[in-house]
Amino acid sequence: MIDEKMIVFAPHPDDETLACGGTIIKKLQEGLNVYIILMTDGRHSHDLILRIKEPSPEQIARIRTAEFKEATMILGVNPENKLLLGFEDTKLGQHMTEAKKIVVEILLKISPSEVYLPYRSDGPEDHRSTYEIVRDSITRTNTHPRIFEYPVWAVWDGKIPQHGLKVQKVDVSRELAKKKEAVSKYKSQISKCFPKQKKAVLSKDFVKMSCSEIETFYTEE
Q: Could you say which DSSP state residue 115 is in?
């Protein structure tokens, strides 16, 4: 697998670890060069979801960026292989043209053999926008990576992926301890960190579901 490259496109800081953390570790151990492209800054996880104004969205963005860097360092991803595009959380769909231009450039430069992106009908709008941006960009570049869609919210929301896709399950039991360590770095999402916060952004049951011994992906192949 010399020179094989893999890109994970994450809508928000934590999606890459929750959905693909074990697979990222496994692929690195197999010799693939792993890249992570973070689409948005995650700034609205507290003011929009929890309805609290302190810390500010700008502070949350800085906190989540730091958490992303820590978590992906534990996964083993080279710092030079992480690209933060910095689009505003929840507003990615308003920047489709610009985002596609950037992603096309990334795909042409890296020429990945595998691409991981959110499941096409997954939860928040940023997830679906990321899917559309990446799929359209792949078509525009006429590259032919193997494409794996990962669900973050679809299963939790009871929207079992369909669309005639094939299921691929990856055993990450050996990588699970390190994945859980990486997830633990997202303290702003999995715990109550701030005075006015009454609950975590992500419930314990959601985190437990995301940290199972199996990671599931969907493909057209």
A: E
